[in-house]
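A quick aside before the break. I want you to see a complete sequence-to-structure record at least once, exactly as it would be stored in a machine-readable document. Don't worry about memorizing anything.
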Amino acid sequence: MKKTSFHTGHINEDMSLQITSMADIFIIILVFLLKSHATGTMNVTTPAGMSLPSSHIQDASVEGLKITISKTSVQMEGDHIAELDNFLFTKPALQPGGPSNPLAKAFGQVRKRQLANTKPTATGESRIIIIADKRAPFSTIKTVMASAAMNGYTDFKLATVRGD
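That is the input. The structure line, written in tokens, reads:
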């Protein structure tokens, strides 16, 4: 019976640590994390009487499907989608669980067009930019987000005014 020894008393040069490769991996991870958590600014036109909340951000532009929530309506890319009464949806427009019937239908139509215009392996653009009056209650914003999420929109950005 032959005995094998795992300790030979010398260091194998092939087992040295590859610092250059590890540094490359860390840089790639750092760039990925910085890109995935970026915030941005954009130019938007708000309806008369609407005021946006303010925040402090850095310059980095983002694009997506623009949803505007005003005191009287919800608009998608400037097109009227749903009526609001003092920032609130009417009861017949809401589905159980929160989504809005007109919004869910509009998001579904836009999503089908987006998916038809992309490669078969792509999922399409799923970013929504919500431009809401600062007086809009969270329940209204939540209804918009629920309607969008039902149709595959999962990345939400809230537009704010740059505070100084």
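Two observations worth writing down. Confidence is low (pLDDT under 50) at residues 120-124. Helices lie at 19-36, 101-116, 138-149. We'll return to this after the break.
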